[in-house]
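Tutorial, part two.
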Amino acid sequence: MKKIRIGRWVVRWQWLVIILSAVIVCTVVVCRLVHSSRRSDLDREIASEVDMLYGYDRSKYEVVEGVVAPNQTLSHLLDGCASIALIDNIARTAKPTYDFRGMRVGNKYALFLEPDSTHLLLRHLVYEKNSTDLIYVSVAADGTVAVREEQKQQTLVRRVVTADIDSSLWNCIADHNLPPSLAVELEDIFGWSINFFALQTGDEFTVIFDERYIEDKRVGTGTIWGVVFHHGGRDYYAFPFDQNGKLEYWDENGKSMRKQFLKAPLKFTRISSKYGMRVHPINHRRQMHKGVDYAAPKGTPVMAIADGKVTAKFWDNKGGGNVLKITHANGYVSMYLHLNGYAKGIKVGKHVSQGQLVAYVGTTGGSTGPHLDFRVTKNGSFLNPTNLPSNSVQPISQSNRSAFDKIRGKVMTEFSGVEMDDDERLSIYDLYPSRRKSEPLTPDEVMQKRLKTNPVSRTLSKLTTKNE
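Running the prediction step on this input gives:
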């Protein structure tokens, strides 16, 4: 077989051809990748120069932007660019998605109009339903109307915040310039463990959470990754975990934060009269107060403290006003007095769930102001509602223990203040592993994949291995 001498080396001519072919193929692939990368950069640069509004190119339309004025309707917005028939069609088509009769004064809108021979025609309407949601209305050339709802592009900012409490949770949230929705989230998580009407100076909490932004405007909270709430000399931990297809919170021992009874039947109020002996505010006699009074504005939502069945709903002539009774397991009965009214669908025989809206705070009957008189009995004997037992529901199962311990460990590390990279922190993929998507290949990985699948490269690789 013919051989070729190259300096001191003598090689077979077939090997030389294979090597040269591989070099040519690699050169072509690299050139294409570089060209593709440069073309992508150019496309991005061109796209960035396009003036976009709500995803539409401004240069293609006459754009009218504005805010909804008092007493303004959809007809006022579209006057001059849509016929009465088209406006009616838009309203009827949009109704399952959004009823334009509910437009709010001050909310933004934009009209994208297309010039015709004599006037401007509506092609798109975008209405900002609220700070996060947009309503898109599109009108085709044949008059067909399409409506959809989309969310604005949001950015999540991970935060770890420690806040001390001087008075109430609500005041603490405001004093530390935290999102108001965070107070609601914390009450939902610790509603079974902490009596938020008994917070005291020296209590504090540390929370790891995502703050949601649209552009530079804060619009609320995302996932709560972990909380430790110091109250009454004790630390209460909460860790997220999905055990039965629903994200819930668990303590450091894997016990559910959800208990048999809520600590209180309403939120963001104060206790105006405790359980026990007192001087009655109306008859001025010293007598036993068999419940707890929660001062709250008229109309404040009242929730069932546990799963149960409505067994009474009546007017109490002895001063209780509108009263609701719910019977729970193990002989417990909860009573709600002085109600302004009942929630829709609440009637005797109705089964209710823990946390379900059942009534509204009022001042009916013998009352000096709007408040809820909340009472609890067990087997007919009155109990102090603030001292109900806190039996936990089903704990973390043995099969989920390892996954839960991993989540708890990550959160505790972040609580400790150790600097962590993003891929070391608890993520949505830890909570929901099935959501993990395959990562896109880098240019180097694309090159390696192409070389591995190229027949010349495979031959060269085999020859190299054989020679070694």
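The mean pLDDT is 82. In part three we will examine how such features are distributed along the chain.
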